[in-house]
């Protein structure tokens, strides 16, 4: 099963925290420090989900989300904006650019996985995984 999460984040501390939390919970993390590298890695690795910072060098998260949405092979990959932007309209702006969801920074380690998981494909749901493993439908 694909358990790769692409994190496009230029802040080393934020990337470290997300990597730690995700790997602790069984995900494989691919990191990109800028939008162009993130797009390249998204196309080559086909991750389960993409966590996308908005304030990136060279190409901001809005442009990255819009570019990712141009690639049909990534249609089913949720793009989750993880950002400190919290002004009125910011959430709507990133969603209209192509993001599936939005998580505010600073990241709360106690709720981050729950917040992120709501945007993952349903087959990642633990109950369904347990049912598949036990033969129940």
Number of strands: 5
Domains (count): 1
Mean pLDDT: 89
Query: What is the overall number of helices?
Result: 6
Structural class: alpha/beta
In CATH terms, what is the architecture? 3-Layer(aba) Sandwich
Please report the first level of CATH classification, the CATH class. Answer: Alpha Beta
Strand content: 15-25%
- Low confidence ranges: 124-137
The string of secondary-structure elements, in order, is EHEHEHEHEHH
Q: Any idea what the shape is? A: globular
Radius of gyration: 15 Å
Please outline the major beta sheet. 5 strands, parallel
Task: Characterise this structure.
- The protein is an alpha/beta fold and 137 residues long.
- The protein has one domain (4-134): 3-Layer(aba) Sandwich (Rossmann fold), CATH 3.40.50.2300.
- It is 41% helix and 17% strand.
- It is built from 6 helices and 5 strands, in the order βαβαβαβαβαα.
- It has helices at residues 12-24, 35-45, 61-69, 90-97, 112-117, 126-134; strands at 4-8, 28-32, 49-52, 79-83, 101-104.
- The protein has a 5-stranded parallel β-sheet with strand order 2-1-3-4-5, sandwiched between helices.
- Strand 3 (49-52), helix 3 and strand 4 form a beta-alpha-beta unit.
- The protein is globular, with a radius of gyration of 15 Å.
- The two termini are 19 Å apart.
């Amino acid at each position: 099963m694909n358990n790769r999460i692409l994190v496009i984040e230029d802040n080393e501390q934020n990337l470290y925290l997300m990597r730690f939390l995700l790997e602790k919970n069984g995900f494989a993390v691919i990191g990109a420090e800028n939008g162009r590298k993130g797009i390249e890695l998204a196309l080559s690795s086909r991750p389960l989900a993409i966590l996308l910072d908005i304030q990136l060098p060279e190409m901001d998260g809005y442009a990255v989300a819009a570019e990712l949405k141009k690639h049909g092979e990534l249609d089913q990959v949720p793009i989750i904006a993880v950002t400190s932007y919290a002004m009125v309209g910011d959430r709507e702006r990133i969603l209209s650019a192509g993001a599936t969801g939005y998580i505010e920074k600073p990241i709360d380690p106690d709720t981050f996985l729950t917040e992120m998981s709501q945007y993952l494909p349903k087959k990642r749901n633990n109950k369904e995984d347990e049912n598949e493993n036990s033969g129940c439908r």
